[in-house]
Amino acid sequence: MRHTVEFDHENRWVLTRFHGPLLIEDAVALLKQSVLFPGWTPEWDRIVDYSDGMLGDLDVEAVLRGKVALGEILRAAYAGKPTLSAQVCADSMKLPLVKYWIGLGTDSYPAALEVFDNIAEAQAWILASRRAR
Question: What are 50-106's pLDDT values in tens digits?
Fold first, then answer.
């Protein structure tokens, strides 16, 4: 798996970047890694970057499997805490699948889910949303 997870303690967010082929099992493993990171708390928001990811092998069955597995981790780790999840995808070919993925996840994830063209926009949204609370 060439995907990466970056932890920003100052801003309290986890940045997951997908590189190359993305399998649902990869997404599950990276989320598990995120919530087990020393110093992580349920107050940390998430940014997921699909820019370099290849989503072509994901189908409806895989997405539904992922919804179940990721939902279990999210419910246990976040315990209903309303956090933010910024999805980054500027590629018009990938965007429908990312939006479908988000649509399936809205009832499993105690967060506001939004899609952005780049990481800077995602970070700005998180910071502005926090100030508005």
Answer: 999 887 777 778 878 888 888 888 888 888 777 899 999 988 888 887 887 777 666
Separation of alpha carbons 84 and 38, rounded Å: 20
Contact 129, 50 (CB under 8 A): no
Cα separation of the two ends of the chain? 37
Residues 6+ apart with CB under 8 A from 84: 45, 46, 111, 112, 114, 125, 126, 129, 130
Structure tokens at 16: 């997951």
Stated pTM of the model: 0.89
Please, are residues 108 and 67 in contact by the beta-carbon 8 Å criterion? yes
**Which whole-number Å values give the CA distances from 8 to 25, 69, 97, 108, in the listed order?**
24, 25, 27, 24
Q: Pairing state of beta strands 83-88 and 45-54?
A: parallel
In three-state secondary structure terms, 131 is helix
User: Taken in order 47, 119, 113, 130, is the CA torsion positive or negative?
Assistant: positive
